[in-house]
Fold:
Amino acid sequence: MSLLEGKIALVTGAGIGIGRGIALRLASEGADVVINYRSSESQALETAERIREMGRRALTIRADVSKVREIRGMVQEVRDRWGGVDILVNNSAVDPRENFLDVTEEAWDQVIDTNLKGTFFCAQACAADMIKKGGGKIINISSVHGMTTMPRYAAYAASKGGINALTRQLALDLASHNIQVNAIAPGATEVEKFAKADPEHDKDVIGEQIPMGRIGYPDDVAKVVAFYASSGADFVTGQVVTVDGGSSTRFFLKG
Structure:
């Protein structure tokens, strides 16, 4: 029997990048996967097709997780069609890099509403179904920027630090319902931005600064998500684990 056989997983921001890697890994472990996206419809549909090729069910739902009404509509659709969520992965995020003095109220709200508020209200909406089912797993995708960061990440770092604190709080609040809540903090990971001709995002340059000699890949994160989602983590809750090749162990990582 597969690790996650019979489980329903909802992954936000699953059309591209780390979210796509997580969705594919959970499907490979036997889960049926709901692929949430906001604007990357073609990529979400491609991810769904790859999951179906594995013999698992896939459902794509467009929803902006910065809006509570859309979150609740998405979770209701999963409830109506598949009976509710067993595993929630809060992955959707935005990360604009701006100098601290240039951050506008609009930019701040976009980051906090998507990254932190979205995580809170997705967890709240899905926890109701998990309680009825007798338990569940919530995995929040944080970042090393929530613990040690670089210039021009003020709003993003604040949102990810908030996710770390929220993870511990939800673990406490939901422990009596047999819902485990954990977070993963990736470091530099090869996603679409590394394909740009941008020296700041050159994966080889960044990889040279990481103790393990390379940047991460989405499946490096996804494999840890699969563990947290499994019965192997039934007594693990309130934890934030870094998946960064050791970069956060260093005093300074040039950004």
Remarks:
- The longest strand covers residues 179-186.
- The chain has one domain: 8-249.
